[in-house]
Amino acid sequence: MVAKKMRYPVEFIEDAVRLTRSSDRPLRQMARELGVNPETLRSWVNKAKQAEVEQPEDLAVPEEVRALRKRVAELEQDNDILRKAAAYFALVPG
């Protein structure tokens, strides 16, 4: 008899890996508590480790954040100017 392959939601897998890594309990115990096969959980943890090694932190992200913060500051300044102009024109008799 072939065991049926189960599909787990990505969120469940991520939570299970995070919980397993942060716990001091043995992997087998964690698997039992989560209701998954220990080898399945081991595979998830190993894949997460592999992904961290293959994809080091993206160095472009901080540059993108700086650019976005600059753009937000410019847009806030534009909004401030428009607010002042609207207030001025609301007071000017027309």
Q: Could you please describe the fold and organization of this structure?
A:
The structure is a single chain. This protein is mostly helical and 94 residues long. It folds into two domains: 8-56, Arc Repressor Mutant, subunit A; 58-94. Helices cover 74% and strands 0% of the residues. It is built from four helices and no strands. The protein has helices at residues 10-22, 27-34, 38-54, 60-91. The model has no long low-confidence stretch (mean pLDDT 86). GO terms for molecular function: DNA binding; transposase activity.
List the helices and strands and how they pair.
Blueprint: H1 10-22, H2 27-34, H3 38-54, H4 60-91
Q: Summary?
A:
This protein is mainly α.
Number of strands: 0
Give average pLDDT, whole number: 86
Can you identify the CATH class of the largest domain? Mainly Alpha
**CATH topology (fold) name of the largest domain:** Arc Repressor Mutant, subunit A
| Number of distinct helices | 4
Can you tell me the residue ranges where pLDDT is under 50 for at least 5 consecutive residues? none
| Structural domain count | 2
Assign a percent range to the helix content: over 70%
Label the overall shape: elongated
Major beta sheet, specifics?
none
Q: What string gives the helices and strands in order?
A: HHHH
Classify the secondary structure makeup into a structural class. Answer: mainly alpha
Strand residue content: under 5%
Distance between the termini: 87 Å
What is the CATH architecture annotation of the largest domain? Orthogonal Bundle
Tell me the Rg in angstroms: 26 Å
